[in-house]
């Protein structure tokens, strides 16, 4: 009898949670019917597994941002300042982004907010370390939107994106729904990272899901197999990255606007390392201002310790390695100010 009362109480709490949730009415009615059906299974051995299953499902759907969104900031001067703060050069790419935001602003002013995302999604194409991911983060910051990343490297199945049916054991939603839950808003910037690096076996089916995600005629009613109810993705700003476009399906490319990310010259890397990376890394390391001084003629060795590299990841790792070595020397009391010159730089370069 006590077990029966406990089960009744659990069902009552689930029903109360459902009634207080901000979710679509059609979905709410569907779950209420299932909870009523569960009342008849209280004495059955299948009750507890089914109760656990619906509790987990209810937790997921009540955590999704069905109606929550952030307020866009479409001020061009603000966007330009964010892009300039985070990225050196890239003038043509910044112009394309500002043009994209301008179209969004004009559509919003005409009262066509729901039509804002009908332009093709931006796709940044370039070698590793050329800033594809960080430019996407800057777009989110400029627009005042949440940012979430979905890695495609090594993805094998469309179920990774679309989720699994709840009838399967250990089923869970796909990466799209997980990203929206993490963002806590229905209009985030979602980075589809390295869409060209899915496995060969799953490429065709994954590209099919991508078409649905990127197509405004379809993505207003995206259905995850686990949630099993349409979710409106039309307000999501999808941004993609790729090392090249050879392995991206034509139908997906038709819905993308590829933008080439250029390789950086040594001179550009010196400016990026000196003016952007070093101040940020020093701040993160706790080294006081003036603790490290790097002479101008040292930077070529920092930029190219092992030969040519198209991106800036090696440069960032090198600077971090130098800063860590000096941080340790400071803690050990060897010195509190370090001047790096062509004569001593090899002592500090990571091996």
TrEMBL record:
Q: Does the keyword Protease apply?
A: yes
User: Hey, what's the signal peptide range on this chain?
Assistant: none
Q: What is this protein called?
A: Lon protease
Alphabetized, the UniProt keywords read: Hydrolase, Protease
Q: Which GO terms describe its biological process?
A: protein quality control for misfolded or incompletely synthesized proteins
Keyword flag Protease: yes
Q: Where are the transmembrane segments?
A: none
Gene Ontology MF term list: ATP binding; ATP hydrolysis activity; ATP-dependent peptidase activity; serine-type endopeptidase activity
Q: Which species is the source of this protein?
A: Candidatus Woesebacteria bacterium GW2011_GWA1_39_21
| Span of domain AAA+ ATPase | 118-266
């Amino acid at each position: 009898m006590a077990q029966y009362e406990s089960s009744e109480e659990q069902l009552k709490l689930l029903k109360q949670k459902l009634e207080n949730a901000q979710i679509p009415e059609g979905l709410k009615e569907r779950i209420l019917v299932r909870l009523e059906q569960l009342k008849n299974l209280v004495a059955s051995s299948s009750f507890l597994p089914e109760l656990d299953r619906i509790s987990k499902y209810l937790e997921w759907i009540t955590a999704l941002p069905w109606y929550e969104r952030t307020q866009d900031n479409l001020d061009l001067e603000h966007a330009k300042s964010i892009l300039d703060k985070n990225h050196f050069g890239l003038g043509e790419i910044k112009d394309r982004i500002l043009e994209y935001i301008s179209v969004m602003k004009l559509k919003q002013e005409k009262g066509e907010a729901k039509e804002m995302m009908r332009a093709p999604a931006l796709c940044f194409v370039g070698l590793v370390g050329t800033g594809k991911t960080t430019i996407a983060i800057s777009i989110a910051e400029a627009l005042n939107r949440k940012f979430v990343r979905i890695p495609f490297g090594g993805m094998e199945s469309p179920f990774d994106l679309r989720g699994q049916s709840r009838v399967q054991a250990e089923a869970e939603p796909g990466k799209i729904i997980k990203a929206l839950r993490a963002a806590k808003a229905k209009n985030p910037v979602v980075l589809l990272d390295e869409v060209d690096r899915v496995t060969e076996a799953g490429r065709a089916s994954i590209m099919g899901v991508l078409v649905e995600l990127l197509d405004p005629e379809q993505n207003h009613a995206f259905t995850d197999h686990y949630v099993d109810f349409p979710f409106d993705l039309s307000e999501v700003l999808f941004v993609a990255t790729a090392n090249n476009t050879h392995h991206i399906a034509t139908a997906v490319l038709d819905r993308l606007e590829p933008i080439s990310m250029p390789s950086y010259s040594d001179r550009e890397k010196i400016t990026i390392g000196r003016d952007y990376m070093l101040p940020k890394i020093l701040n993160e390391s706790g080294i006081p201002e003036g603790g490290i001084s790097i002479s101008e003629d040292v930077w070529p060795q920092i930029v190219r310790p092992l030969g040519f590299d198209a991106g800036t990841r090696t440069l960032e790792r090198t600077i971090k390695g130098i800063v860590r070595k000096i941080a340790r020397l400071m803690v050990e009391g060897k010195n509190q100010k370090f001047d790096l010159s062509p004569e001593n730089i090899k002592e500090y370069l990571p091996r």
